């Protein structure tokens, strides 16, 4: 199998699996128990908290563990809104992940006003529109992603955070795709909350974290017991948290080396695709994007047909599109970028990881061109 769908999920690192195993078998104590057996689990959680904080460049006490990026995003939005009443205006980008888009749309139905900041043809953030939106005195918060999950385009979080600080607007960042791929140093950045998910950097699924800067006014969203320092009720998933901590440590340890190697493979892949296949287009901001992400439009084709044939050749990739009523429509991200239909319909995302090898790229380059040639002969849009 050639796995080039790492923005969807990543392989569990063997070292992460090994770290988790004892807590799935012998070390099963409840971390809220006062006896020594339970406190072993408590210590493991706090070690994981420290490891995640090291990856993000913050204090361990600012890390709240969650069930993943979606919960972290929802908790950030609702926790901030609860403290900002009666303000009801939220600022988001037009290319946010569904973990932000869906709760925001639900809030709009409840009477909140949503301001969507547009992006340009390359997916670059509309800074002037953001400045104008912040002048609204009813703004409760701004929530902007760091890296787009489809194109890899990076937004200038420092500049956006400084603007939010100037207008006294709390700033949440969805960094689910950024964490473990680019350096993060939250002590040096003007943001208030930030969401991550373990399975995007070779940790287990169903585990995430919400960074809450010390002093930020935020209300706990999930009520129950006193876990997570009274900020999230519910018995902790100790094995998964241990795995997240180990994955964070590994990502932090070799981040620069891994990123350089991944980007080199990604660039070689793109250059060869351009050379071997006519009428292709790389979507997104080519100067400011994740090192692992390549969103390629094969003009005149449908991504669904491409992916089906790639899968038959054991090559895993994805498309920013969703089937509904028997038709395939480009994703909201590509629509927001106003990509022409002949490109948007044939857009395929290839995303690499530190486990991607040169042999994987060579195999992909042998598989993709004949498939595109075949489709353009038989099934053009």
What order do the helices and strands come in, and which of them pair?
Layout: E1 2-3, H1 14-24, H2 36-56, E2 63-66, H3 69-84, E3 89-93, H4 98-109, E4 113-117, H5 127-134, E5 139-145, H6 157-166, E6 171-174, E7 193-197, E8 208-212, H7 227-230, H8 238-253, H9 255-276, E9 280-283, E10 293-298, H10 303-312, E11 315-316, E12 321-324, E13 327-330, H11 332-336, H12 341-344, E14 347-351, H13 358-378
Parallel strand pairs: 1-11, 3-4, 3-5, 5-6, 6-7
Antiparallel strand pairs: 2-8, 7-8, 9-10, 10-14, 12-13
Helix pairs in contact: 1-8, 2-8, 3-4, 9-13, 10-13
What does this structure look like?
The structure is a single chain. With 381 residues, the chain is an alpha/beta fold. The protein has helices at 14-24, 36-56, 69-84, 98-109, 127-134, 157-166, 227-230, 238-253, 255-276, 303-312, 332-336, 341-344, 358-378; strands spanning 2-3, 63-66, 89-93, 113-117, 139-145, 171-174, 193-197, 208-212, 280-283, 293-298, 315-316, 321-324, 327-330, 347-351. A 7-stranded mixed beta sheet has the order 2-8-7-6-5-3-4, with helices on both faces. The protein has a 3-stranded antiparallel beta sheet with strand order 9-10-14. Helix 2 runs parallel beside helix 8, helix 9 (255-276) runs parallel beside helix 13 (358-378) and helix 10 (303-312) packs across helix 13 (358-378).
